[in-house]
């Protein structure tokens, strides 16, 4: 067992050298012991379409069963449907086997106790159990259930599509979103064109990560050739969404949040809405302008879900395309559901996404910048920068340092999953953006 596979939000590694059959079996015993110690007796189990997922699922399942933990095997499903099963089935937790948007040779485990996703210290507790070699023993029961149909029935019944006809291209990137989204959106009355919707763990057409522009080339061409109103792309396990206008313009996560928040605030004035630290200032300003209460929080899907529950927020989101609806839904990140809510808005009136966002101020920004930094040094570097910037500027330090300058801001934070620093900059124009970035990078260089 290699300790470094126990990450901040999940357990993840290369298959089979870091995650093989023996390791998966040991993890099954580990998870089962963790569940049993906390009174959980049954869990749902799902997996994505990666070539290593069947082997990992079988070994993990066997390890769970011999701890006395019963397993409801859901087969190949998107990660959001594993989360959905925690609300729909009588289970005490769940495990999803998925490599998400990572390369094909990677895989991993997302673990839930009750309806919450484990992260941080709780993941480290799993490592301690694995290293102790002391496990519960018992005889769990195995049951197989189908969750795709219950999910589609509930979502199609709760999302109300309007009278405006729309056509959407779905690019599932050969991930598992293709098992659900096209059929669901058709049931909603939307015309659907499919692109790479056949699950294939080799990902032969492009990498399943909708935040990378080159991965959306095929979607852009398909939207244009079919005269579609928009394109929707998913990552490998369909918990992150990418959206494209008919002219090929990308609608990033914080822009989607503006659109969603406006519609939620119409019926829920004063509602709390959470964005992570990399989101544009226009998001927070727009929420406040429309009567909401914006909250800036740490990046990371598990951290966002925890903050939503604490604050009673109705919506949250990240630049990466994790969108969380507690309004009319369960509060977990579900890209398929987010797409359905987007189509609900777009079919209710003739306006395009661009029309909806036409009054949002246009700022210029960088994409996410990643700089290598040693694991044991990255948090110290950020801490020093926080103190340096606080001497002269307003600093939001909920996750690293988001430094507010006249006409823009700069951010540096330590990645929770890799030995890198993550930076982003936004300003009123290109000149100011370069000024802020140069000033910021000069301060950073002195700490590296």
CATH H-level superfamily of the largest domain:
Alpha-D-Glucose-1,6-Bisphosphate, subunit A, domain 3
Low-confidence stretches: none
Shape: globular
Tell me which CATH architecture of the largest domain applies here. Answer: 3-Layer(aba) Sandwich
How many whole angstroms does the radius of gyration measure?
A: 22 Å
Total DSSP E strands = 22
Structural class category: alpha/beta
What is the CATH domain class of the largest domain? Alpha Beta
Q: Strand-residue fraction?
A: 15-25%
Number of helices: 14
Count of individual domains: 4
Terminal CA distance reads 32 Å
CATH topology of the largest domain: Alpha-D-Glucose-1,6-Bisphosphate, Chain A, domain 3
* Mean pLDDT score: 96
Q: What percentage of residues falls in helices of 4 or more residues?
A: 25-40%
Largest sheet: 7 strands, mixed
Secondary structure elements and pairings:
Elements: E1 11-14, H1 21-37, E2 42-47, H2 53-65, E3 70-76, H3 79-88, E4 93-97, E5 106-113, E6 116-117, H4 121-132, E7 142-144, H5 148-158, E8 167-171, H6 181-187, E9 191-195, H7 217-225, E10 230-234, E11 241-245, E12 250-251, H8 253-267, E13 272-276, H9 281-289, E14 293-297, H10 301-311, E15 315-317, E16 323-325, H11 335-346, H12 353-356, E17 364-365, E18 369-372, H13 375-390, E19 394-396, E20 401-405, E21 408-414, E22 420-427, H14 430-445
Parallel strand pairs: 2-3, 2-4, 3-7, 8-9, 8-10, 13-14, 13-15
Antiparallel strand pairs: 1-5, 4-5, 5-6, 10-11, 11-12, 15-16, 17-22, 18-22, 19-20, 20-21, 21-22
């Amino acid at each position: 067992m290699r300790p470094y596979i126990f990450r901040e939000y999940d357990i993840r590694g290369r298959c089979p050298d870091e995650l093989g059959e023996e390791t998966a079996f040991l993890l099954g015993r580990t998870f089962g012991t963790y569940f049993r110690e906390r009174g959980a007796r049954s869990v749902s189990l799902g997996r994505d379409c990666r070539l290593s997922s069947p082997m990992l699922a079988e070994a993990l399942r066997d390890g769970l069963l011999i701890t006395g933990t019963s397993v409801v095997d859901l087969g190949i499903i998107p990660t959001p449907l594993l989360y959905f099963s925690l609300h729909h089935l009588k289970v005490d937790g769940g495990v999803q086997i998925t490599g998400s948007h990572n390369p094909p040779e990677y895989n991993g485990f997302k673990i839930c106790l009750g309806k919450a996703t484990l992260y941080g210290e709780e993941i480290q507790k799993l490592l301690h159990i694995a290293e102790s070699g002391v496990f519960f023993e018992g005889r769990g029961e195995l049951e197989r259930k189908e969750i795709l149909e219950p999910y589609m029935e509930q979502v199609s019944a709760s999302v109300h599509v309007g009278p405006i006809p729309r056509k959407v291209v779905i690019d599932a990137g050969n991930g598992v979103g293709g098992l659900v989204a096209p059929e669901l959106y058709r049931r909603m009355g939307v015309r659907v064109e499919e692109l790479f919707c056949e699950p294939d763990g080799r990902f032969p057409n492009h990498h399943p990560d909708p935040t990378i522009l080159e991965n959306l080339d095929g979607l852009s061409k398909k939207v244009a050739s079919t005269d579609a109103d928009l394109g929707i792309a998913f990552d490998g396990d369909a918990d992150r969404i990418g959206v494209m206008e008919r002219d090929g313009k990308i609608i990033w996560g914080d822009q989607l949040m503006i659109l969603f928040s406006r519609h939620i605030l119409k019926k829920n004035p004063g509602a709390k809405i959470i964005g992570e630290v990399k989101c544009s200032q226009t998001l927070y300003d727009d929420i406040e302008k429309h009567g909401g209460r914006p909250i800036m929080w740490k990046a990371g899907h598990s951290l966002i879900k925890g903050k939503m529950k604490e604050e009673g927020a109705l919506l949250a989101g990240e630049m990466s395309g994790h969108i969380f609806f507690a309004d009319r839904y369960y509060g977990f990140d579900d890209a398929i559901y987010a797409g359905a809510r987007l189509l609900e808005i777009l079919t209710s009136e003739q306006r395009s996404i661009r029309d909806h966002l036409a009054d949002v101020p246009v700022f210029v920004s960088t994409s996410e910048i990643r700089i290598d930094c040693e694991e044991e040094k990255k948090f110290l570097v950020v801490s020093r920068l926080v103190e340096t910037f606080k001497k002269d500027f307003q600093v939001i330090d909920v996750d690293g340092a988001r430094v507010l300058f006249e006409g823009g801001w700069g951010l540096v934070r330590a990645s929770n999953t890799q030995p890198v620093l993550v930076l982003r900059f936004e300003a009123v124009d290109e000149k100011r953006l370069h000024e802020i970035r140069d000033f910021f990078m000069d301060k950073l260089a002195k700490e590296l």
